[in-house]
Amino acid sequence: MSKLNAGQRKARDDERFSQRVNERREKGEDVVAYALGNKKAVKFLTKSEKKNLKERRAMIQEELKIKEQQELERIEAAFTEDNAE
To answer: Is 85 helix (H, G, I), strand (E, B) or coil?
Structure first.
C-alpha cells in the first residue's frame, strides 16, 4: 500500500466520519452525543443537530460552572469552620 499524502488522508478520514455519522443517524442513535465525544464528527451534522450540539455544550458549561461554584463554597465553608475553632 502506498503512503497517502495529507490531503488524501484527510479525505479518507472525512469519508469515514461521514459514514459513521450516517450509520448512527440511520440506527436512530444520538449523533449529537457522538459529536460531543468526537469533534471530527461535528462537520457532518445537520443544521438542527448543530444547533442541538451548541445548546448541549452551553448546558454542559453551565453545569460545570455550578459544580465549580459549589466546590468553592464547600472549600470556603470548611476553611471558615477551621478558623472559627
So the answer is: coil
